[in-house]
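Worked example

This section walks through a single chain of length 278. The input is the sequence exactly as stored; nothing has been trimmed or padded.
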Amino acid sequence: MRLSWVPRMASRVLSRRVFSSSHSASRIVPPAAHPNPGVSPSTSTVTSENKGRISSSLDSASVSVLEGVPNMGVGRTVWESGLRLIDFLEKEHRESIMGAKVLELGTGTGIVGISVASMGANVVVTDREEKLLQLVKKNIDMNQEAIIAGGGSVETKQMDWGNRETTSKVAITCGPFDYIIASDVLYSSPSHINLVETLWQCAGVDTKIIITYPSRDLEWEVRSKGGDPRPPSEKCTHKFTAHVEERFHHNIIEFYAPTEPRRGNRGYSVYVMEMRLK
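Given that input, the structure is written out below as tokens.
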């Protein structure tokens, strides 16, 4: 996947980000005027477009999403961890995800779920906020051509991790799932126990759970040291895992070094964690 980044201009209207598909993993790079010697060379390009548009090229599809307005909360934004999750799934799971049943938790703008559907998966995207799901429905409608061309599908469901009724309903009516995916959902410690319960309800013995999170979520003592720890260092393990030990196997399987400091990343690394039921 080729990605291009142009910082968003301040605006009270929805911003547009455009994605198209390619079978190579994306590498986001800064503009030529701001080189980052710490990042390996990439085939990505940066284009100058209006309204803070981000462009990427996927091989056989074009996916575009609108971001929300401030009163929609943090889910209104496309975050770095989401882009890296798309990268990872396209690079490592492109074949196995075709035709798979996928559940996305905390979908936000829907960019990850829609992109995965364009790879041929049948995706259920979920979020707690109805206003975010309305945004996601717009983005799904806007990308029907890419979804159909990829052979996938997307549907939206409201899910509150603290509400066993909503999570059970999704698990029973939409499962079993081959994959459960989520990006940047570990930032709030009080939600961890409810998230573990939701994963427990929705996962089967063969379900692959893949979660991406940024290094800003690591303990302050780790972040204050300077460079982010790399796997297999225990220091890059998220404190969330303390809640999953009893029920799930977990392992960090990929590490993306930061590119340039910018909104949604600020120079943080991104970790990919895989989980399975014990």
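What to look for: The beta strands are 2-4, 16-21, 55-66, 101-105, 122-127, 153-158, 179-183, 208-214, 248-256, 270-277.
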